[in-house]
Structure formats: C-alpha cells, structure tokens
Amino acid sequence: MKHTTIFYRLGLFLLEGLIWLWLLSARPALASVPAPGTSTSPAPPAPTDITTLVKGAR
Predict the structure, then answer these.
(1) Whole domain around residue 16: which residue ranges?
(2) What span, in angstroms and rounded, lies between the C-alpha atoms of 15 and 2?
(3) Dist CA 10 CA 14 (whole Å)
(4) pLDDT tens sequence across 1-39
(5) 8-state DSSP, 3
(6) Can you give the pTM of this predicted structure?
(7) For residue 37, what is the DSSP state?
(8) Is there a domain that residue 58 lies in?
(9) Torsion angle defined by CA atoms of residues 20, 24, 26 and 30, in that order, rounded to the nearest 10 degrees
(10) What stretch of H or E contains 26?
(11) How many domains does the chain have?
C-alpha cells in the first residue's frame, strides 16, 4: 500500500514538472504575439556586416 502512494506522488511530481516546462517554454512564443490594437511596425534590421557599419558611421 505504501509503494502505491510513493509512485502516485512521484507521478504527480513528474507531471507537475512537465507542466512547468511546457508553460515556461511556451511563454516566449506568447510574449512575441502582439496584443490586439497595437501597431505592428517592424524595427529596421540591424546591419551585421562590418562594411555597412563603417559606411553608416561616416
């Protein structure tokens, strides 16, 4: 009888851990979705090439 309660608690603990992992992994995707009514103007892409950085500085 005691073994079943141990496995039951262990199963609940693992299930809770999986739920927390799912919630934490889904949070950035939910945060990237813009709220309704807000303007979705994308930021200009940052120049990654060193020559465009130098040309932009002049």
Answers:
(1) 1-33
(2) 20
(3) 6
(4) 577 899 999 999 999 999 999 888 876 555 556 666 555
(5) H
(6) 0.40
(7) T
(8) no
(9) 130
(10) helix 2-32
(11) 1
